[in-house]
Design goal:
Layout lengths: L27 E5 L12 E5 L29
Antiparallel strand pairs: 1-2
């Protein structure tokens, strides 16, 4: 086998075998908390990965940072 992750797999065969193994997509969501107007764009955000998105036994970390588009009060939809 060839490739950077070839050592992660064991293959026993009696002939020549070729396979392409693709990366699994991981999905999730990030949400900003509402806040009282303070004249800044700072935002407190939290994130979560969707159930079934991560394979059991894999270690995946989600780090989220965010800020509002502008400092003005009001509602926005994106």
């Amino acid at each position: 086998m060839v490739g950077l992750d070839a050592g992660n797999y064991e293959l026993t065969t009696t002939g020549q075998v070729t396979a392409n193994i693709s990366k699994k997509q991981i999905t999730g969501s990030i949400t900003a908390q509402d806040k009282v107007y303070d004249g800044t764009t700072s935002a407190i955000v939290s994130g979560a990965l969707n159930a079934g998105s991560v394979i059991t036994g894999d270690q995946v970390n989600l780090n989220a940072q965010g800020q509002f588009a502008d400092k003005n009060a009001g509602q926005t939809s994106r």
